[in-house]
Amino acid sequence: MKPLIGIIGQIDHSRNRLFLDKTHIEKIAAAGGIPAVFNTAASPDEVLEHVDGILLIEGPDVHPHFYGEDPSGAIKYVDVDRDEFEISLVRKAVERGVPILGICRGMQVINVALGGTLYQDLNEIPKAIKHDWELKLIGPSQRVHGVRIKMSSKLYGILKDELDIEGTNEVYLRVNSFHHQAVKRVGEGIRPVAYAVDGLIEAIEGTEDAEGFIMGVQWQPEYLPEMEKLYEAFVRAAAEYRTRKLELERVEIEAELKEKLGKAETEEEAPAITEERDESHHSSETTDSPPDTSQS
Questions:
Q1: Mind giving me the DSSP string for 23-67?
Q2: N or C: which end of the chain has fewer CB within 10 A?
């Protein structure tokens, strides 16, 4: 069976609806996964009981409260319920080794969940290039700035066949960009592996000792053809997690059945053992030689 990928949708509170760009669903399906959309009505534990991977997508600003700051005037809009849900979901998923892919805001959520901080607005960065392009004005697939990827990274290993390699330590590509917040201090268990020309972190991934697949990109990969490899790697990791999970469940079920059978056999043997002891005791009482009462 294909791995089930949980996607956390966006909530439109004014219209009481849940929505997301269908391209996310199409990319997961094309990569071999089964997409399933969740909202904050479910608990993180309930979601993780069913899914084999988590896809975190774009959305509102992460409220600064979750990394120890008050909101500046640059904050646009927030969804605290979604923040709480996704941050808890990431922490629990990391503990269980569930694969995670974060896109745009999703990358920022991963970082905050693991103890990192964000730039509330890119104006905080001296000489920052433009990252907050208007989707409606330029379209989703325009490549508006360059990104350099470390060749020692898992991300490079995933994308290398699709990239033009010019250097010995880094490779460059051009990406789309629709964000005004970004990773500032990197959280625990992850590392930065791609940067914009202004030094802004554009991708993160799990460190070597981190369990499972953890990846986040600041751009929107669903609109860039070469990024299909990223979705395939994510879904493949989810399939491997599903296999491990099913094997563990099988072992646990077999151990439970063995324990029950052992208990049942013990309960069946107990009366027989008691009966055998009773018979042995009775035999010893009736077969003893009677005292010799005869007289000479």
A1: HHHHHHHHTT-EEEEE-TTS-HHHHHHH-SEEEE---SBPPGGGG
A2: C
162 burial level (CB within 10 Å; 0-12, 13-18, 19+):
middle
**Side chain identity at residue 294, one-letter code:** S
Distance, CA of 175 to CA of 179 (rounded, Å)? 12
Run of H or E residues at 230: helix 228-286
**Torsional sign, CA 83, 120, 19, 98:** negative
Contact 104, 58 (CB under 8 A): yes
Cβ neighbours of residue 232 closer than 8 Å, sequence gap 6 or more: 31, 32
**Burial grade of 180 (CB within 10 A; 0-12, 13-18, 19 or more):** middle
Question: Which of 269, 71, 281, 107 lies closest to 201 in space, CA to CA?
Answer: 107
pLDDT tens profile 52-83: 999 999 999 999 999 999 999 999 999 999 99
Show the tokens assigned to 68. Answer: 């120890």
pLDDT, tens digit (0-9, with 9 covering 90-100), for 8-42 = 998 888 888 888 999 999 999 999 999 999 999 88
DSSP output for 1-14? -PPEEEEE-EEETT
**Which residues, in sequence order, are CB contacts of 36 under 8 Å at separation 6+?**
4, 5, 6, 7, 50, 51
Q: How confident is the model at residue 293 (pLDDT cuts 50, 70, 90)?
A: very low
Tokens 């055998």 found at = 276
